[in-house]
Predict the structure.
Amino acid sequence: MDANPSTSVFTEPRAEVDRQRRRYVWRRRGGRVGLYLLAVLAAMVAAGPFVWSAVTALKLNSDLYTATNNPFAFNEPATLDHVLFLVQDTPFPTFVVNTLWVGALVVAITLLFGLPAAYALARLDRPWAGPAGIALFFVYLVPPTLLFLSLTRVVVWLGLQDSTWSLVLIYPTITIPVCTWLLIGFCKGLPKDVEEQAMVDGYSRLGAFARVVVPLLFPGIVAVVVFAFTLTASEFIYALAFISPSAEKMVSTGVPTELIRGDVFFWQSLQASNIVVAVPIALVFTLLLGRFVAGFTMGAVKG
Amino acid sequence: MTQAPTATRPSAAPATGRRRRLGDREGPLAWLFLLPAVVYVVALVGVPFVLAIGFAFSDVSAGDPSYDWAGLDAYRRAFDDPVFWQALRNTLVFTGVSMVLIVLFGKVLANILIADFRGKWLVRFLVLLPWTTPVALSTVSWLWLLDSIFSPIDWILRQVGLLEGNMYWLGRPTLATASVIAVHVWRLVPLAAVIMMAGLIAIPRDIDEAARVDGAGFWRRMFEVTIPLTMPLIAVAALFGAIFTFTDMAVVYVLTRGGPTNSTQVLASWAFVRGIEGGDVAQGAAIALFLFPLLLAAAVLILRAVRRMQVM
């Protein structure tokens, strides 16, 4: 344990070595226990509200609205009534369809604009590529809160208000900058020889990009698709400001505005909708976490 | 869009002589690749931004969208309303407190996420939930968690004997403030942790091992090796936490609607109340523009942190 060679383990008496070894083992064991405790605690705090949502979603009214009942247990049999109500008798399925549809279009637009831009910034050796990449990233930090009023006027002017098309048009302003940044990272991760080889084989630069680079970027593109879709599904202010008829609403605005009628909250259905949306997104993110981290850090590294 | 069909050619075609076709000239190609994205972003971020500044000095309203210069009238209307000052103060308090807590908890969480243990994937999944779920939806969870009558937190406090009746989390100004901050911290800690995790992964293994061999314990390595080395990313995490707290209105809108009596109103939600719900676009734009100086400062600091990272 000590850097000084004269007191290293080799010259110390056996008892001392044993004592130090035991101390080390205990410390390590203590560290492991602490780690598990912290991990469980973190998971409980993070997921607690969702567990509470899941339990609520399956409760009978009479169980839910008795203040003395244990809120975390089923004091009366569980029921799927409220989940069925959500699917059959509320516009929730419409919100899901709207979100998927807008999400798919926004993802397509993002890739169409972002892929070439990322390639140009990562690979085509322009002196302005570094600053341009950073500038693009900063656009992501310009918040919807600052722009929603003027964009609402723009949307009205284009005749797109109360239509999901307004979101298809505006959401890429959020997704293109951040996804291009991610894609720059993935492009830098590809070895340069790949394109050079393709060009030696007779492809033009453009051909090498379309036929060789894009297919190789596939894992990164998957990550970008997920990221762009999640940003689209999470956005709130634009969706709230541009659209008011319930048939055109997204999940993020429809749920908190349409499933609450005045003072009447459909609590179980609300919580069910929360779980239905939250779990799949988080699952996919968990699987792709390593890729996101790699993409974002690579983007900041000089190519 | 940018891919002219003539530019791709099969490998069999003769490559010499016609080498400098458009598909090969890197200068124009770089522009061609970049331009669509730049035009899109400038048209729908740059122009609206200038428009927002223009609106702040006008009398534009939802009822009368024609543009007339009105000087500082919108600002005067905003400043005369004490709610604006309340919203400004709240925004700064929420942002400051959340940022500190986000960094502290995020650092701890990053160290947990990077460690190797059984059930790691489940923990990662559960921990990412607050960040990946649309804010408006997870806030609905909190709305129910903090319900005035059926809050399970109240139930636990009652069982332990600390509470009779209810806390009315969202009904009292201090508790409502604490609740809004709690939701922000809860939803942004995972993001901060993931950013800091990226920093921890990037530390070369031998540095940590060298410190270990030199006899540095866990805390010493943490404070004298890891934290200094990952400082740029800790800064980036802090600033992201600040920006997302600072500019968000979904939490306040869903959780408290700015209440009780505007005690949790923030600039973003107040701009929405005035600009969209009240139809006073000019005043809404003037209020929202107050977000800009702080955003700019945060952006400059992030830029500096990123520069330091590249030096590293």
